[in-house]
Amino acid sequence: MLSGNTYPVLSFASILQSIAFVYGGTVRLRRWLYQKSVLPTTILPCPVISVGNLTVGGTGKTPMVMHLAAMIGKMGLRAAIVSRGYKGNTYKRSTIVSDGDKLLCDVQQSGDEPYLMATLLSGTPVAVGKDRYAAGKMVIERFTPDLILLDDGFQHLRLHRDLNLLLMDARNPFGNSFVLPRGPLREPISAIAVTDAIVMTRCREPEVAHLDPIVCMAHPKPIFRSDHRVVFRGMAQANRPLPQLTGLSRVPASPKAINGFCFSGLANNDSFFNAMERVGVSVRGSMAFDDHHSYGEADIDHIVKAAVTSGADYLITTDKDFVRLSHRNGFPLALLVAGVALEFPDDAPQWESFITACIKRMMGRRKVGG
């Protein structure tokens, strides 16, 4: 029996800390080996822009990749997107999701986020694969893009990138500052040193934190502030088969006239629920699932029953969730689909100047190098 002042030598926290210490040392060593060229880095024959983060969970990588693809298009250039294709059936082999005009595989093959980007981005080829070099090479051979956008690429050190963009959630940039499994960091905060710029996301949401000034002094980088603007993609009508995302009907009312029941399977479901309330939706209830959740009939039954009980007139979900529901015949309530668009309300001119200058420099370097 332990006295009041006696503690076990091993606690759950100490076990997690020990594992985190080993994990942190391993990822530091791995990055160092790539930096010293002990482990080989592959180089694609066109510039690569990597979008990634330090923490597990959603920081807005998908909206950022789509934002960059649009920016590149406005410059008269063509981007292609290469993603890991998490939880897609073709994860271990390179697969073209879209040729920029039409979809070439379904969401089960590609994973939800690549499929979402392929659906919404016209003129931008999308590919997935565990080996991002092989997927990128396949895209270049088939579509000859000017640039590759590497989705979730900060830790994919095998592939050389010409520009490293690191996204951080402004509400909690580093979590508890511990690496996995003690905290949410994929690698130590010192990895900031290898990024070219930091983009803070969700900067206008409540309880926004600030980057640790000591970290900023140790690793001075350009920092840009962005926000997620809610965009309603449209509505799937009640008791009808679900259309493609681009075939949704118009939302019939302003958000302030909507009584909705929200459900989602995201890394941070509360962000979605809170966003609906901030735009004026009357949220009668909500149901949260794990990130990339595959909805079964039992899930749908629970959602519908809870929505009806709450008195909601509409179901509301995210575009990322909607593409995972494409196999369904429909719902007894109309389903509103919401997404987010990345914008820079305070730093737009600086951000556009930075990206434009970086892209021009990358394109010039590659032309000189042949």
What can you see in these coordinates?
- This protein has about 375 residues and is α/β, with parallel strands linked by helices.
- The protein has two domains: about 210 residues, Rossmann fold; about 120 residues, no CATH class.
- Helices cover about 30% and strands about 20% of the residues.
- It is built from ten helices and 13 strands.
- Strands 3-4-2-5-1-6-7-8 form an eight-stranded mixed beta sheet, sandwiched between helices. The protein has a five-stranded mixed beta sheet with strand order 9-13-12-10-11, with helices on both faces.
- The protein is globular and about 60 Å long.
- It starts with 11 loop residues before the first helix and ends with a helix.
- The N terminus is likely disordered.
